[in-house]
Amino acid sequence: MSDTILDISGLTKVYPGGLKALDDVSLQIRQGEIFALLGPNGAGKTTLIGAVCGLVRPTAGSISAFGFDMAKDWRQGRSRIGLVPQELSTDMFEPVIRAVSYSRGLFGLAPDKARIEEILRALSLWDKRNDRIMTLSGGMKRRVLIAKALAHDPDLLFLDEPTAGVDVELRKGMWQLIGDMRARGVTVILTTHYIEEAEEMADRVGIINQGKLLMVDDKHAMMNRLGRTEAHITLAQALPALPESLAHFPVEIEDGGLSLCYRGGDGTGKGKAEVAELTKALIGAGIDFTGIDTRESSLEDIFVSLLDAKEDAA
Predict the structure, then answer these.
(1) Where are the transmembrane segments (predicted)?
(2) Taking phi first (over 0 means left), then psi (-120 to 50 degrees means alpha), and beta for anything else, what does residue 18 get?
(3) 191 by DSSP, 3-state: which?
(4) pLDDT tens-digit profile of 145-202?
(5) CA angle, 56 as apex, 55 and 57 as ends, to 5°?
(6) How far apart are CA 301 and CA 304, in angstroms?
(7) What's the pTM value of the predicted model, to 2 decimals?
(8) Which domains does the chain carry?
(9) What's the CA gap between 209 and 42, in Å, rounded?
């Protein structure tokens, strides 16, 4: 793929003691996309990021970034990668502007006060530039980490749980910031527990669990293929059994016969059409109902169902 900037092949990491944090993971990241990596705690998300950024030595497999073999030419590849770690690890006694400027210098770049100011202003940190990091709120500290990661103008940015510990308002501001980064041509890979972030921003989604990459797909394609429609129909009178005329619908009696639950469709609109047919069939059978509550699967529903299926298979 000509626009692939990160190529991970057969990546495996086994820690002393036998814990397999990554199990034969292969993944290609395209230039300019926002890719969300979803998975529960301990799934291997942070280990994968660490392997790409040179913080974790893989047991097997290969990583190529911007055409550089990260096992041999890691300096050239790493110089184009930014990392915002999950933990708030930075010198808390440093003023904001000094910490961000120092991060730029770590990559051998000449000082650029104008660029540092631009980054700090974009992150609403300019007014805090002379404040010690320890005096900032949790959300502002998170923004300092992003500023440090952007200081050397990376082409690929890893965000490991970027909105962990920040309130809803700051989280939405962070979403906007990530969108702005992509608009400037930065490729973004983020891990998150907040699946609505992936649903809001990501172009593609990968789901990882127990070190294995379960699925990678375009977000909308995944939701269309794996999504479902669920409808709860409240009946006017209890139904003792499902009539023969409704037997071909994927519907079950619940609440002691006082409601019907439909679960079906395929994410393409088939479910909504089938619910409409179901209501016509109810009317035709003389079954009165007082309400219908219909919802489509979210990305979170798909995520949970995939993890449940993985556990059942195990």
Answers:
(1) none
(2) left
(3) strand
(4) 989 999 999 999 999 887 766 666 767 777 777 888 888 889 999 987 777 778 888 8
(5) 125
(6) 5
(7) 0.77
(8) 4-224 (3.40.50.300), 228-296 (3.30.70)
(9) 8
Task: Return d(Cα 268, Cα 281) in angstroms, integer.
Answer: 22
Nearest Cα neighbor of 143 from 130, 126, 156, 154 is 126
**Which tokens in the block code for residue 183?**
């608009």
Token duo for residue 55: 């913080």
Counting beta carbons within 10 angstroms of the beta carbon of residue 280, is it exposed (0 to 12), middle (13 to 18) or buried (19 or more)? exposed
DSSP 209-246: ETTEEEEEEEHHHHHHHH--EEEEEEESS--SS--GGG
Nearest CA among 15, 33, 12 for reference residue 216: 33
- Name the nearest CA neighbour of 184 among 125, 115, 127: 115
CA distance 65 to 29: 9
On whether the CB atoms of residues 303 and 199 are closer than 8 A, the answer is no
* Mean of the per-residue pLDDT values of the chain: 87
Rounded to whole angstroms, the Cα distance separating 92 from 280 reads 65
Decide if 173 contacts 143 (C-beta within 8 A): no
Name the nearest CA neighbour of 122 among 172, 177, 166: 177
d(CA 145, CA 99): 9
DSSP code per residue over 161-182? STTTT--HHHHHHHHHHHHHHH
